[in-house]
Design goal:
BirA Bifunctional Protein, domain 2, 295 residues, eight-stranded mixed sheet, 19% helix
Length: 295
């Protein structure tokens, strides 16, 4: 027998759980769930190409032949109609191409300077703080993702009851404007479509529609709030915030829709650390109103 320094032959041996037969393999902790692939598209992606790729990837995820994907794109200027879109709210039908998106929601604009994140996940399994098969919590998680992303630029994004999306309020003028939009579709528990963050788009392009069917409020962007963020910085912030909601850094055991709804005014938490190289936003009086492009 080999001698052991302590005189105890079990000194460097893990204890077997009670009831484990001698010689049986020890139970291993479950392997962490795989995180989605991240892909950044170069240039401007035509919208029909994006729809075709999302549909193909979602089908492959359902079939188990492809992994989940977060796909970051920019589009050429265009309008998309959700399943609740009213034709009358496309107020300038000749300005840009318009497409039926097949997602939930109403009209939205996509174009250069706006980061669109298409989120293709198998919602039959847990993702961080989002429990399986809970579409409401999934949408709440997408909202929290955007809230935490803009917080990295010093911007306070907020939810509003009855209005999906992320809003920036100006306490002086008492106006508010949308900085992030959300529209998803879930097919046999696989999500597609996703979110859009206004980094530095031409906000006048939103005047060809009634964005998301809301005419009494405008739209804004990081640039309109005085933040000169690059698209690469926006992508870095999206990636960092993702893990706090959908990844391993999310609070375990409590659904996203419980965690974040319990925060003050349902705004979600604000990270203490800003993105490297970004100056905190100081929303000047009238900043949200200056970006008001309601139709």
């Amino acid at each position: 027998m080999t001698a052991h320094p302590t005189g105890d032959p079990t000194a460097n041996t893990a204890a077997e759980p009670p009831g484990t037969p001698a010689g049986a393999p020890l139970a291993q902790p479950p392997a962490p769930l795989a995180q989605p692939d991240w892909c950044v598209a170069a240039g401007l992606t035509p919208y029909p190409d994006a729809l075709a790729r999302m549909q193909a990837r979602a089908a492959a995820i359902r079939d188990g032949t492809a992994g989940e994907l977060v796909w970051l794109v920019e589009h050429p200027p265009l309008y998309t109609a959700g399943t609740s879109a009213r034709p009358a709210e496309l107020t300038d039908p000749t300005r840009f191409p318009a497409y039926a998106a097949g997602r939930g929601g109403q009209w939205t604009y996509h174009g250069p300077g706006q980061r669109v994140a298409y989120v293709m996940l198998d919602l039959a399994r847990r993702h961080g703080s989002v429990p399986p098969r809970d579409v409401r919590c999934f949408v709440h998680g997408l909202e929290e993702w955007l809230i935490r992303t803009v917080a990295l630029f010093g911007v306070r994004g907020e939810r509003r009851a009855g209005r999906v999306g992320i809003w920036v309020a100006d306490p002086v003028t008492r106006t508010e404007a949308k900085i992030g939009a959300i529209g998803v579709r879930v097919s046999r528990w696989v999500s597609w479509h996703g979110v859009a963050l206004n980094v530095a788009p031409d906000l006048s392009h939103f005047t060809g529609i009634v964005p998301c069917g809301i005419s009494e409020h405008g739209v804004t962007s990081l640039a309109a709030l005085g933040i000169s963020a690059t698209m690469a910085q926006a992508d870095e912030a999206l990636r960092a915030a993702w893990d706090e909601v959908f990844g391993s850094a999310a609070e375990p055991g409590v659904p996203a829709c419980v965690i974040y709804a319990s925060s003050q005014a349902d705004r979600g938490a604000t990270p203490a650390t800003l993105l490297r190289g970004v100056t905190p936003a100081t929303t000047a009086p009238g900043a949200a109103g200056a970006a008001d492009t309601t139709a």
